[in-house]
Amino acid sequence: MNTSFFGELLQTISDRGRALLDRGRDRRGDTEARSESLVELCEHLLSGRGEASGVARARDILTEYAELTTGPRIAFFEALAKRFGADAERMKAAYAAWEAEPNDKTAAALHAASEPRRQELFRRLNLAPGGTAALVAMREQLMDVLPNRPELQAVDDDFVHLFTSWFNRGFLVLRHIDWSTPANILEKIIRYEAVHEIHDWDDLRRRIDPEDRRCYAFFHPALNDEPLIFVEVALTRDIPEAIAPILAKSRDVIEPEKARTAVFYSISNCQRGLAGVSFGNFLIKQVVEEICRELPKLSNLVTLSPAPTFAKWLKRERATEASVVLTDADKALLATFDEPGWWNDKEKVEALRDTMKRAAAYYYLRAKTPRGMPVDPVARFHLGNGARLERIDWLADASEKGIAQSYGLMVNYLYDLEDIEKNHEAFAEQRTVVASNAVQRLLRPALELVPIAG
């Protein structure tokens, strides 16, 4: 209700401001008003001081932007990069003042002068009704052109900088999603599912309606009924080693009180325009605490997680002549992957088991990005949330997608409420991959270069 009231208030201010702008334009003449470009409107928005007219102008800019085709949209992004950066003259003056008298006041002035003008532009655009959603969509369109327009990276960096503050975890609200949730939200759950496709309404109902299933979503007040991230949970007796039994159409539903394990088997980010924006750590801890309050007898809180970049990484290792991960015998064995339908041959699957689990252990415990982070994005998420890499599950996902991205490999991460903060600190401060003894033992003795926390 408060969010609705605030939105209506902004709309009222915008409408009144629109009247003020229209009267101002009458004095300048319709010809001038019609010739005013979108970029010029942005300049007017930055130079204006009136709240009502500013909200109205922000709404006009976002409305006109939404009507742009691809070419003009890229031109607008280019203008943001070239014309709305930091004011060079203001920076020089602020730097000279700080150099002459370095203190908190001149340092603050220098900091303010160094901020790109487009950041303030985005803040003012955000005041328009629906402004936050429009800016998230704008950033998504910017991301589409970035690969071919690296000069626009600074604009994207400013979006990420602002979104990181606007979507701080403190602003997020956790909601339980079930069959009584409004249909418009359920439709988005179907559309945004990124891990295991939801095929239809019946499939969705199987995931959220039975008493041994749960679904939770995080929302932001400014986006109202747009989920940011949602988590699907299965209540089971034991830690699962494959996804098929969880997603099966026909299965035995267990009473929640008899469950000893909560499995987070799908975690989906819904807003592509917020990619790379951290919602903060401990999101999953919040879900864990919610489930534990309802079901205090649960003893295991685990994920069944995909390994989205494992196949790509392993292909590079197979092609590397001096691989420290794979021997020549391993490479010969992995030629099985070139055979169609190999995952349906039980003997071949079993023959691959030890080599694949050993390679996966190296992938998770040793393979790093240039910044020293694990190469696997899902690992970075869960380790950052304080989980422990608990178990590697060979051929746990034999779907077309699972075979393509990881040769069917999945992993379990364990969330232990007593160790979450400790594990998070170890990863945040030292990039330590906290792993179970069982996973650590999978590494070849020769690869045990440094100790790994257990």
Describe this structure in words.
With 454 residues, this protein is α+β, with helices and mostly antiparallel strands. It has three domains: 165 residues, Butyryl-CoA Dehydrogenase, subunit A, domain 3; 135 residues, Aminopeptidase (3-Layer(aba) Sandwich); 142 residues, Aminopeptidase. It is built from 21 helices and eight strands. Strands 1-2-3-4-5 form a five-stranded mixed β-sheet, sandwiched between helices. Strands 6-8-7 form a three-stranded antiparallel β-sheet. Strand 4, helix 14 and strand 5 form a beta-alpha-beta unit.
Portion in strands: 5-15%
Dominant shape: globular
Unreliable segments (pLDDT under 50, ≥5 consecutive)? Answer: 17-36, 448-454
Query: Which superfamily, in CATH terms, is the homologous superfamily of the largest domain?
Result: Malonyl-CoA decarboxylase, oligemerization domain
Number of helices: 21
Can you name the CATH architecture of the largest domain?
Answer: Up-down Bundle
The computed structural class is alpha+beta
Order of helices and strands: HHHHHHHHHHEHHEEHEHEEHHHHEHEHH
The total domain count is 3
Gap from first CA to last CA: 47 Å
Characterize the largest beta sheet: strand count, sense, and whether it forms a barrel. Answer: 5 strands, mixed
Q: Strands of the largest sheet, in order across it?
A: 1-2-3-4-5
What is the name of the CATH topology of the largest domain?
A: Butyryl-CoA Dehydrogenase, subunit A, domain 3
